[in-house]
């Protein structure tokens, strides 16, 4: 690997927001990451010189725009070890997860793909740690089909194991949906073991990869999951676009959640036949400019090298854990000291509400996230209404964590909670 390329990809100067706010520490990348010049430039160039409809007509303009759109799909597929037909552009990961659940709901209603149908008494398994986007669609699917929604419990740290999951999965389990990396705890799930457990009973696996694709080397085909979802804006790209991954044969069997233009082969007054994936899922006018930026973000990460990204963030994860554990009266959520985790930490400060912690840090020039992080069941299980989360990315530095640590050490004293 070319180390000069890796170091260049990590340089803060390549990210306009960080250049503009050189005095601030940005530790909220798990919510939305910053974009490098290469991504913004790619979007701008397309919008200025190639902007046109895609997959419509036979003009030169359409051909150029379609090439850019599909080249972006190729870049995203390359990043995650997928075939080009296995990447569907969605509005975001939430949209992608809903597309899966709604497709299974339609299959259960008899709209094709009987092998994907659920029936009353079947089971859908999630974990207590899931983001709402990987929970609520399954609640709805269970209610529509009469299936039973079951949850894998977490421990006092918010962590679950494959043994915990194995005790919940039964021969009636049809879907197992779980996060590769928890957006609250930083826990990295044992994907291969979960897939094996699900396959043993014939269940589909749905992976929320929002916090893994940007930060870890991910080979979705190699992991063996059936479906996955991830978002552009968490991996250096623009908002408004994400990806649904599915094994090609499953995507071709899954009824499209949205229908209309661009998805069909033949339409009569009474019926319609749909294209193969991915076009069968991409109804209407596509977010082409955003797709180009998404592809550029994927290229940026490939050029950086995902092993290098992971190594950089693993070091920062250790520093973040040390920072939280160094402050008396501060409770670390998730895996403990020395345990593998992603480059984020969530914590609760005794006697100080998470929102007050976040405001104090913000006034010190440190951007973090506060709240329940769209994971209310997990916070309820942990006995806290909200936590504060600091999350690093490729452009984060040890100096950033040092500033975070120094400011965090002053929180309880400022609010009089150390008396």
UniProtKB/TrEMBL annotation:
It comes from Microbacterium album. Residues 25-404 form the Aminotransferase class V domain. Keywords: Pyridoxal phosphate, Transferase. It is an enzyme of class 2 (transferase). This is Cysteine desulfurase. Pfam families: Aminotran_5 (PF00266). CDD domains: SufS_like. It catalyses: (sulfur carrier)-H + L-cysteine = (sulfur carrier)-SH + L-alanine. InterPro entries: Aminotrans_V_dom, Aminotrans_V_PyrdxlP_BS, Cys_dSase_SufS, PyrdxlP-dep_Trfase, PyrdxlP-dep_Trfase_major, PyrdxlP-dep_Trfase_small. Its cofactor is pyridoxal 5'-phosphate.
